[in-house]
Amino acid sequence: MEQRQLGRTGPQVSALGLGCMGMSGMYGPADRAESLATIAMAVERGVTLLDTGDFYGMGHNEMLIGEALRGLPRDRLQISVKFGALRDPENGWSGYDSRPAAIRNFLAYSLTRLGTDHIDIYRPARLDPDVPIEETVGAMAEMVRKGWIRHIGLSEVGAETIRRAHAVHPIADLQIEYSLLSRGIEDEILPTCRELGIGVTAYGVLSRGLISGHWSRQPTTRGDFRGISPRFQGENLDRNLGLAEALGAVAARLGVTTAQLAIAWVASRGEDIVPLVGARRRDRLEEALGALDIRLDEAALAGIEAAIPPGAAAGARYPEAQLAHMDSEARR
What we know:
globular, oxidoreductase, Aldo-Keto_reductase
């Protein structure tokens, strides 16, 4: 497995990471045994980066990973955890909390659920509008000194916030959506990360399955986030599936699957970028791992760009109410 460095100060991780969110109901029901088998297979095949959030399934995802970690080589793995999102008993969202006291509380629970004495990369899930980022990162820097966390990351924040955070303590990486359908980071956020030596862990590389080659127009199941995602609605869905079909034609000419080509494109954007794949099953993981063997020449890249040009996606990547709380989407 190829290794990539997460920024100038971050850890060496596998060139592909496993995003575990979908194993805890965010995309509808998941099979526990298959989830555990998928994590085990990922580690066996050389994946070292496992990504989660303490609010995925209200702690379910961390407990699942904690169970999977038993018997796995913890010293060779990097666990990335997002914190701060507030939930309620109806599975709703109640905002974000990045106060120092709250962070210590979140961390204590995460360490217990994961069954580990440290978290390799710890990051606020979103910017808390009521807490200066300097205060949040300052509290996390103290946790680094205590050995509870190894590296500080960020998630879905803009260039100005990245600079302010990095001035307090070195930031290892920024986790943010990046795919053929979501290229907004290319204008300002990605150049800022590269200037400061901050890596990128890219989630949503298949646009939540939309450009995987496996999605069709069937209705989503209860609890599936895609049921409220603008890109999966009506004419937007028709347009976006047309883009996926065009990408599939390029993939067929190259002898790979649509999903593999979409993942390979993200991986090709720079050695400072690590794609996260949200495989919930071993067959999907096997397919994703095949993307690491693809080398894209200029002709292939041109074909991909022709199939899905920048800005071609129909619909926003999140509902408007969620976009309003995302610092990465703020227009200053």
